[in-house]
Amino acid sequence: MKKILLIAVLMISVTVSAQHDRWEKIRALKVAFITEELNLSEKESQEFWPVYNEFEEAANDIRYKEMRSIRKEIRDNAESLTNEKALEIIKKFENAEERMHKLRLQFSKKLKNIIPAKKIVKLKLVEEDFKRKMLKEFQKRKKERG
Description:
By secondary structure, this protein is mostly helical. The chain has helices at residues 2-38, 42-77, 83-112, 117-145.
């Protein structure tokens, strides 16, 4: 029994490690892609990435923790939702959206001291290009496997 449990724990550890490695590779590709597309100098890059990473972490907390929690609450209570509960959920959603908006404004303000405005504007396009590129790559690999 202990051997089976040990094997299960090891398999889970390997799976989690593989997923972490995959995310790290994607993150490294994103860093390289954005750095190249924005043509960041070494100085710009040194100042840009800590600010960008801080923003991404905070934005992901809102997107994937809070918003996901709100959507789960809606799904779990869709049939029995009272008007009062619905108003409470709307307020949670509005608060999360407001924090996300403030976070974006702070991010933009910080970037203005690091890179030229033209690069800040281009950043949004570059991020979207990276997402599209990754999506195409995932679709291609899925076709190759299936």
